[in-house]
Write a structure and sequence with these properties.
The complex is a heterodimer of chains A (266) and B (181). Chain A has one helix and 13 strands. With 266 residues, chain A is mostly beta strands. In chain A, a hairpin with a 4-residue loop joins strand 8 and strand 9 (190-197). The chains are: A mainly beta (266), B alpha+beta (181). Chains A and B meet through strand 13 of A and strand 2, strand 3, helix 2 and strand 8 of B.
Chain lengths: 266, 181
């Protein structure tokens, strides 16, 4: 009997190892009924030196999150970060899959994220709406070969409320940026990845483009990501508008993400 | 009249099934059970393709291994890497019945098949216990056996530093429909 493949073509797998690198999301959405629980950390600034154990003693910023695949294209998630006690709700939808046949050469996904700052503020009495911030990002990626993938992600961030400090020029409610991310696989289990997030157009005073370099280990059920990043946040709207440290001054922080994947039925 | 037509149709279908010599399916089920310490998981596929020829006793089955689903995409990808499905996409069995089977008996009959099982580019002669049962819809085939990964040069993957067991329990089930041959 002639042997025939059950499926001749299909989506390219593992363009990236997980749904985000250090802080920037990738085109990878969770497949249906797959769940990813995440612990994302980073520490203080490396430039604080040995007295502060290169930032490790400086306290950690932590985001705990869960994402779940509703379909093979669409996932939803929730997370909470200790930074300003921010809760974020997010969703990602894969508009187009890159196909093995190359009939579709890129993968395109959209991500939306709403952040809610829940921290009590002594000076102001914010309404719920005033506590909201938003992100919209279109991610376009291609896996060029088994090892190398590249992504460009134009994005827009909006904050309903900004606090004006004396003597500081007016910051922007809306900021645009273009994320550039890549991954190079060293073998089936290990990879280097990077992300860079330049602001396009007006930027908030005193801010600097975020960047990170990551070493990723994939064990099958887990993806561990060890990185150095300049931004402190794990949500892109904050990375884009709040990063104020410069890697050239050794102002980066060590961090790591743990992604644990579960199957919830078949 | 309606009863007569129904009876005629039923007899026609039954006679067609019992006279058929060759049965085939492209939607059988294959399941494997795998174990790591303190944890077990299964993978399955509904793309098992099989052909049984009762005239000469030939049994021919194959499975596209990329269709196996363990419920976690990352584990599926690991499994495909372990089995090197890019180079060796199929698990295949080709052999023949080595015990008698009576197609006029509709009860489940235990049978043995002997032939070559091939996976990961390695072929070995095996004898597998299974059952055949003639049903109104076709021929029901079931079988199960234990596959030793090292016999097929498959290096068991580690799940977070814990090795997957060498023994994989395999089950198949397929309802094969009569072909026109």
């Amino acid at each position: 009997m002639e042997r025939k493949r059950a499926v001749e073509d299909g989506p390219v797998e593992d363009i990236f190892l997980s749904g985000s690198i250090a802080g920037i999301s990738t085109v990878e959405a969770l497949p249906a009924k797959n769940l990813n629980s995440m612990v994302m950390h980073n520490f203080g600034l490396f430039s604080t030196g040995i007295e502060n154990f290169f930032g490790i003693d400086g306290g950690a910023a932590v985001r705990l999150g869960i994402d779940y695949g509703l379909t093979d294209r669409w996932d939803i998630g929730i997370g909470r970060s200790g930074l300003e006690n921010t809760v974020d709700l997010r969703t990602k939808y894969v508009l187009l899959h890159q196909l093995k046949s190359d009939k579709v050469p890129v993968q395109i996904a959209f991500k939306g994220d709403i952040g809610i700052t829940t921290q009590k503020e002594r000076r102001f009495d914010y309404t719920f709406t005033e506590r909201l911030n938003y992100l919209g990002s279109l991610m376009i990626a291609r896996k060029f070969n088994e090892n190398f993938s590249l992504q460009v992600s134009p994005m827009v961030a909006h904050f309903n409320t900004l606090v004006l400090e004396d003597g500081v020029p007016t910051p922007n409610h809306t900021t645009f940026g273009v994320g550039i991310s890549g991954r190079y696989k060293l073998n089936n289990r290990k990879a280097f990845a990077f992300e860079y997030l330049p602001v396009v157009g007006d930027r908030n005073p005193g801010t600097i483009n975020h960047m990170a370099i990551s070493y990723e280990i994939d064990t099958g059920g887990h993806v561990f990501q060890l990185f150095m990043m300049t931004g402190q946040w794990f949500t892109e709207q904050h990375l884009l508008t709040r990063t104020d440290t410069n890697i050239l001054d050794m102002d980066f922080r060590f961090g790591f993400n743990i992604n644990r994947f579960f199957g919830i039925g078949k | 009249m309606k009863k007569l037509i129904t009876t005629f149709l039923f007899l026609f279908i039954c006679s067609n099934v019992s006279n058929a010599q060759e049965y085939m399916s492209e939607s059988g089920t294959a399941i494997f059970h795998s174990q790591v310490p303190l944890h077990s998981f299964t993978g399955s596929s509904d793309f098992l393709t099989g052909l049984v020829n009762l005239e000469d006793g030939t049994i021919d089955f194959y499975l596209d291994l990329t269709t196996l689903d363990t419920g976690i995409q990352k584990r599926d990808r690991d499994m495909k890497e372990t089995l090197e499905t890019g180079k060796f996409p199929f698990a295949e069995f080709f052999g023949s019945l080595s015990t008698d089977f009576n197609p006029n008996d509709t009860s489940e009959q235990p049978v043995k098949v002997k032939g070559d099982f091939k996976i990961h580019g390695v072929s070995r002669e095996v004898t597998i216990d299974g059952t055949l049962q003639m049903k109104p819809e076709g021929l029901l085939v079931t079988a199960n056996w234990v596959l030793e990964l090292e016999d097929y040069d498959i290096v068991p993957p580690s799940l977070l530093f814990v090795k997957v067991d060498q023994e994989q329990k395999i089950e198949i089930e397929a309802l094969l429909k009569p072909t026109n041959n």
